[in-house]
Amino acid sequence: VLLVRGAAAPFTVSGNDLLDQTHWIQVTTFLVFLLLQLALAIALPLLVAGRMKRTLGVREASLRLLNENTRDALVQSDSAGRFLHWNDSFSELLGHSSADLAVMSERDVTPAKWHAVDAQVEHGQLASSGRSAVYEKELFRSDGSAVAVEVRKFTLTDEDGHTPSVWTVVRDISARKQAEDELRSREAMLRATQQIAHLGSWT
């Protein structure tokens, strides 16, 4: 028993009282610790998710800014290839209105002979690294003609690791292809002329 003296009348504190107070403090401390752990467990995932959403939002905003200012055609598609957003260059390249593109997909404007190439890129480079190398293909215009293009694709993933959209940069290379065809044609004519001249020298 402890005797405590002060300005008031003396009073005593037993050992059992001290043990009860110590136990109460320990229990209270433990409960506060559990509450802090619970709060952290709830808040941390929310903070991480919020940060990832903000990061994704910044990336989306940056891409949309690029979308409106790049000279190349740029189009955003969902995981099924349906068009979600595009710039004026893409619409002008294909000759389709926004109303047309809103109900179309990449497969709709791609000749069948290129479907396997697109699938290989999607399941290969995009699946493994989230971006593709530049590759050539063709796209249908609204009048049914095909235009030669170079494309490069890259994906955006959300906080769950899913891929909600694919961005594709499309560059019209039809003029370059035409120049290459004309060059090959001139080279073929030159070779034919040289062969005729060589045969004529023996007559």
What is the radius of gyration?
35 Å
Oligomer: single chain
Instruction: Please provide the ordered H/E string of secondary-structure elements.
Output: EEHEEHHHEEEH
What is the mean pLDDT? 76
Q: Regions with pLDDT < 50 over 5+ consecutive residues?
A: 1-13
Distance between the termini: 137 Å
- Shape call: elongated
Would you count the extended β strands for me?
A: 7
How is the largest sheet built, in terms of strand order?
Answer: 4-3-7-6-5
State the helicity in percent bands: 40-55%
Largest sheet: 5 strands, antiparallel
Approximately how much beta-strand content do the residues carry? 15-25%
Number of helices: 5
Structural class: alpha+beta
What are the defining features of this structure?
alpha+beta
Your description of this structure?
- Helices cover 53% and strands 20% of the residues.
- The protein is α+β, with helices and mostly antiparallel strands and 203 residues long.
- β5 (135-140) and β6 (146-156) form a beta hairpin.
- The longest helix has 55 residues, at 15-69.
